[in-house]
Amino acid sequence: MRARTVWGVVWIVVGLAVSLGGMVLAVVDPGRAVLGGIGFGVGILPFVIGLFLVRHALPEAGDGGGRPWDTSGSLWDLFR
């Protein structure tokens, strides 16, 4: 479970870095705006994958353990 959390955080950081790099490229060099937009879009995928990895690594709410909030029926539990 801990490894899934670590990999989730790594995917989140990589996704953010690629997305921010794409946005910076689009702003700094308007001639490469399409390439920057593609970089931004590609960076969103690992970010979302990381969110789901971390989400699935969290323990279920139960008897005195797990998440202290109720996520039933929310977008956070989309792929449960």
What would you call the shape?
A: elongated
Question: Roughly what percent helix?
Answer: 55-70%
Strand content: under 5%
Task: Determine the oligomeric state from the structure.
Answer: single chain
Compute the number of structural domains. Answer: 1
Roughly how many Å apart are the termini? 16 Å
Largest sheet: none
Helix segment count? 2
Question: Taking Cα atoms only, what radius of gyration do you get, to the nearest Å?
Answer: 16 Å
Tell me the number of strands: 0
Keywords:
membrane; elongated; transmembrane; mainly alpha; 80 residues
Question: In short, what is this structure?
Answer:
The protein is built from two helices and no strands.
Description:
The chain crosses the membrane at residues 7-28, 34-54. Keywords: Membrane, Transmembrane, Transmembrane helix. The two termini are 16 Å apart. The chain is elongated. It has one domain (2-57). Helices cover 65% and strands 0% of the residues. By secondary structure, the protein is an all-alpha fold. It is built from two helices and no strands.
How do the strands and helices of this protein lay out in sequence?
Elements: H1 2-28, H2 33-57
Helix pairs in contact: 1-2
